[in-house]
TrEMBL record:
InterPro entries the UniProt entry points to: AAA+_ATPase (IPR003593), AAA_22 (IPR049945), ExeA_AAA_ATPase_DNA-bind (IPR052026), P-loop_NTPase (IPR027417)
Pfam families: AAA_22 (PF13401)
AAA+ ATPase domain segment(s): 42-194
SUPFAM superfamilies per the UniProt record, alphabetical: P-loop containing nucleoside triphosphate hydrolases
Protein name: General secretion pathway protein GspA
Superkingdom as given in the UniProt entry: Bacteria
Source organism (scientific name): Thermosulfurimonas dismutans
Molecular function in Gene Ontology: ATP hydrolysis activity
C-alpha cells in the first residue's frame, strides 16, 4: 500500500521471521556463533532464550537456511501437549511411519529412524519453539529421547527455544538431569538505542529504500523508547507509522507520528509493551479524543479514495486484457487463413 509512496520494493517491517531481513547486531552475532558451533560440532542439547519478539526464530531460520540440505529437521511449535502427544508430533515432523499409538512403540520407532540416519551419515535436529510452555513431564520425556546416542556421540541434536520463563522452569529440581545435558545456553538481549537505529535502516535498505533517513533521528529515538529494542515491537511501530504517513502524505516519519502511532495502539489495546515500561495511560480529554477521531476519519477517507482509484485502474487493466485477447484471437485466425 505505502511501498510506492516511500520508494520501497516491499514492506520492510513485516512480523514474519524472514531470515533475509536478519539484522546481525553484536548480540545476535554472539548467539548465532554459539548456535552454529553447537550444530556444526553436534553438541547435543542447546537452550536459547529471549523476550517475545527478540528475534530467536528469525535467527534459527537463518541458520537452517544455510544447513537445510545437510540435515533432517523436525520443528515443533505446539508445546502445550502431553509427553505421548509430543512424541507423536516429533514422529510426524520427521515423517516416521508409526503403527502404534503406544509411547514405547513410538520411542522405539524413533530410535530405529535415528540409527538409520546416523548410519547413512545424515544429521537430525529437533527444534522445539515456545519451549517455556512445555510441562515438566514433557521436558522429562525430552531428556529421555536425548539419551538416544552411540558410544561416541548423540544420534541427534535438540534445541529448546523459549522466553525467559524457560530458564526458570529448567531450574526445577526434577529437571536436574536434563539441565546437566545442556551443552550450550544463550540468551538473546534486546537491542540498544544505536542498534535499534541501525536495525531500522537495515530493514529499509533490504526493502529497496532509496533513502535510509526515512525516519528522523528523533523518530528512531522514540521507536527505541517505546519498543525497548525488541525487534517485533520495532516492526509493529515502524510499519504502522508508514501506513499513517502514507495516509497523511507525510514524506518523512518524525517523532510526533511515532507518538501518535503508540497512543492509538494503546487506546485500542493492541500494543504490547515490555513489562518494565508498561503503565496506566491517562484518560484523554473529550476535546483531544474528538480531534483524534477527526484525524482518523480523514485518514480513512484518504485510504478509501486510494482504494477506489486502484479499483478503477484494475478495471482498466482488465479491459485492456480483453481487447488484447480479441486482437490476438483475430491475428491467429488471420495467420491460419493465410497459411491455408
Amino acid at each position: 500500500m505505502y511501498e510506492r509512496f516511500y520508494g520501497l520494493r516491499e514492506k520492510p517491517f513485516t512480523l514474519s521471521p524472514d531470515p533475509s531481513y536478519l539484522f546481525m547486531s553484536p548480540k545476535h552475532e554472539n548467539v548465532y556463533t554459539h548456535l552454529r558451533y553447537a550444530v556444526v560440532e553436534n553438541k547435543g542439547f542447546v537452550v536459547i532464550t529471549g523476550e517475545i519478539g527478540s528475534g530467536k526464530t528469525t535467527l534459527i531460520n537463518y541458520l537452517l537456511a544455510r544447513i537445510r540440505g545437510a540435515v533432517r529437521v523436525a520443528y515443533v511449535y505446539n508445546t502445550r501437549v502431553s509427553p505421548s502427544q509430543f512424541l507423536k508430533l516429533v514422529a510426524r515432523e520427521l515423517e516416521i511411519p508409526v503403527e502404534t499409538q503406544d509411547k514405547v512403540g513410538i520411542f522405539e520407532a524413533l530410535n530405529r529412524f535415528l540409527l538409520r540416519e546416523y548410519a547413512a551419515g545424515r544429521r537430525v535436529i529437533l527444534i522445539v519453539d515456545e519451549a517455556q510452555n512445555l510441562s515438566l513431564s514433557t521436558l522429562e520425556e525430552i531428556r529421555l529421547i536425548s539419551n538416544l546416542e552411540t558410544q561416541k556421540e548423540p544420534l541427534w541434536q535438540i534445541i529448546l527455544v523459549g522466553q525467559p520463563e524457560l530458564r526458570r522452569k529448567l531450574e526445577h529440581p526434577s529437571l536436574k538431569q536434563l539441565v546437566q545435558r545442556v551443552t550450550v545456553y544463550c540468551h538473546l538481549e534486546p537491542l540498544d538505542l544505536e542498534e535499534t537505529k541501525a536495525y531500522v535502516r537495515h530493514r529499509l535498505r533490504v526493502a529497496g529504500a532509496k533513502r535510509e533517513d526515512l525516519f528522523t533521528e528523533e523518530a528512531l529515538e522514540a521507536v527505541y523508547r517505546y519498543s525497548r529494542g525488541i525487534p517485533r515491537l520495532i516492526n509493529l511501530i515502524c510499519d504502522t507509522a508508514l501506513v499513517y504517513g502514507f495516509a497523511d502524505g507525510i514524506p518523512r516519519i518524525g517523532a510526533d507520528l511515532i507518538e501518535t502511532v503508540v497512543e492509538d495502539r494503546r487506546r485500542s489495546g493492541l500494543f504490547f509493551e515490555p513489562a518494565e515500561t508498561a503503565g496506566e495511560v491517562p484518560s484523554p480529554e473529550a476535546g483531544d479524543l474528538g480531534s483524534r477521531v477527526r484525524d482518523l476519519e480523514q485518514r480513512v477517507r484518504v485510504l478509501e479514495a486510494l482504494v477506489g482509484e486502484l479499483s478503477e485502474r484494475l478495471e482498466f487493466c482488465r479491459s485492456l486484457e480483453r481487447e488484447w485477447r480479441e486482437i490476438l484471437k483475430n491475428l491467429l485466425l488471420f495467420i491460419n487463413i493465410k497459411s491455408s
